Amino acid sequence: MTTRTDNETIRPAGPVRPGEPGWESRLVTLIGRLRRLCNELDALGERQQELIDADQVEALLDLLRRRQGMVDSIGAIAGELDPVVRRWDELSATLESEVRDGVRDALNEIEAIGKRVGERDAAQRRLLETNRNQLADRIAGVGKARAAMSAYGPARGVNRPRFQDREG
Fold first, then answer.
1. Contact assessment for residue 18 and residue 92, using Cβ atoms and an 8 Å cutoff
2. pLDDT per residue rounded down to tens, the chain (168 residues)
């Protein structure tokens, strides 16, 4: 599967295979990409809030499409990192301390970003649901007002006289 983001196409090369030559540098590269994508996702979340507040539905839908591409890329990278994640305690001991500390710091940052994005998404979802419910109530109110107005209007299907005798 190939995933397109705004800046690059991420082509999964398969999972990181610990023990193969260069696996450590591949790990660091993927963690760096993951961190960058998570930061971009976080920034999109802030823009998403602005669009929700401004009630710019079309722009919001466009942003959500872009966001989905990023989420897909994050998922692809997470899949490539899975063999290392499952054996992290064992494998981290084999890494140079500088590399291990850098990866750990990056993963901590990614975790913090993920938490922030998740909390913001939950708040935005609640806001959108509230807006949707308010809109549904307003639409229902318009329907009720129309029904009330039509109750006072002329009856439909009733033939009214076209000619009247005004003399008496």
1. no
2. 444 444 444 445 677 777 778 888 889 999 999 999 999 999 999 899 899 889 888 999 999 999 999 999 999 999 999 988 888 888 888 889 999 999 999 999 999 999 999 999 898 888 888 877 777 777 777 766 676 666 666 656 566 666 666 775
Q: Does the domain at residues 20-151 carry the CATH identifier 1.20.58?
A: yes
Whether this model's pTM surpasses 0.70: no
Domain ranges of the chain: 20-151
Is residue 81 left, alpha or beta, with left meaning phi > 0 and alpha meaning psi from -120 to 50?
A: alpha
Residues 6+ apart with CB under 8 A from 78: 34, 85
